[in-house]
Amino acid sequence: MNKQSKNKLIAIFEGQQIRRHWDNDSELWYFAVSDVISVLTKSVNPVAYWRKLKERLKKEGGNETVTKCHGLKMIAQDGKMRLTDVADTEVILRLIQSIPSPNAEPFKLWLAQVGYERLEETADPELAISRALKTYRQKGYSQNWVNQRLKSIEIRKSLTDEWEKRGVKEGIEFAILTDEITQAWTGLTTKEYKKLKGIKKENLRDNMTNLELVLNMLAETATTEISDKQEPKTLNENKSVAREGGSVAGNARREIEMKTGKNVITKSKPKMLK
C-alpha cells in the first residue's frame, strides 16, 4: 500500500470520527479498524477490543482477515502519528460479521456510500468541492466564510505539494512546519491556538474567523513562494522558510491590530459571528 498518498481524512458516522486513507494505487479507502470497532461496540478501549478479536479470529480460522489488516501511521488522539491497523471496505465488512452490533447494517450502508462518493469525486473533482460547500453551509457557516475556506484548502494543497517537492515527509514533518508558520504569524503554537479557540480534535481552520483565515492563507502562500525561490533541501531549511512565510502574515496582523485597536487572534469562531 502506498503510504505517501495525500488523502488522509476523517469521515463521520453518526457523529463519530473514523480515520481513513485513500490509496491511489489500489483506488481503495482504508479505515482505522479501532475507530470502526469504537462505532460498532461503543467500547471504552477499542484498541484492546481489537487485540482480543484478532486473537479470537486466528483461533477460529479467520487469520486471512487479520493478515489483510495493514499498519499505517495516522494521527492519534494525542496529535502524534502512530501506527494503526487499517483495512479496506471488503475486510471491514468481514470484521463486522464478527462483531454483534445494532449499528452493523447502517454502517454497511455508510461504507458503500463513502466508496461511491470517492469514485464520483475522482471522475469529477468539482463534486468534492460542491459537497464540501454544502456541508459547511449545513453547519451554519456564512457563504462568505465558506468561499474563503474553500480557497484556503486550495492554498494549503499548493503548500503541501511544494513541501513534497522539497522532500518533506507527510505527517509529523508537515505538522512541524505548519506549527512554525502558525507561531510566526499568530505568536501561538498550534496547540495554544486550539486551546484559545476551545477545541481539541476539530480542524483549527474550521474555527477561524474570516480575517484569521485570510492571514493564514497569506502565511501559507508566502511560504510556498519563498520555498519555490529558495529551494530548501533539509527540514531545518524548510523550517526557516516556514518562519519567513509566517512572518509576512505576522507583520500584516500587527499592522491591522495597530490600525483597528483590536486583536485579530481571538476566541471568536465563524459560527458565532452575525
Could you characterize what this model shows?
With 274 residues, this protein is α+β, with helices and mostly antiparallel strands. The protein folds into two domains: 8-123; 143-272, no CATH class. Helices cover 60% and strands 12% of the residues. It has eleven helices and five strands. It has helices spanning 33-41, 46-59, 63-67, 89-97, 104-123, 125-138, 143-165, 172-186, 190-197, 210-230, 235-260; strands spanning 8-13, 16-23, 28-32, 70-75, 81-88. It has a five-stranded antiparallel β-sheet with strand order 1-2-3-5-4. Helix 7 (143-165) packs parallel to helix 10. Residues 1-8 have low confidence and may be disordered.
Strand order of the largest sheet: 1-2-3-5-4
Alpha-carbon distance between the two ends? 46 Å
Structural class: alpha+beta
- Mean pLDDT, to the nearest integer, reads 84
Main β sheet profile = 5 strands, antiparallel
Count the DSSP helices: 11
Return residue spans where pLDDT drops below 50 for at least 5 consecutive residues: 1-8
Number of strands: 5
Write down the Rg: 21 Å
Give the amount of beta strand, in percent.
5-15%
List keywords for this structure.
2 domains; 274 residues; five-stranded antiparallel sheet; alpha+beta; disordered N terminus; elongated
Summarize the SSE layout with pairings.
Blueprint: E1 8-13, E2 16-23, E3 28-32, H1 33-41, H2 46-59, H3 63-67, E4 70-75, E5 81-88, H4 89-97, H5 104-123, H6 125-138, H7 143-165, H8 172-186, H9 190-197, H10 210-230, H11 235-260
Helix pairs in contact: 1-2, 4-5, 5-6, 6-7, 7-10, 8-11, 10-11
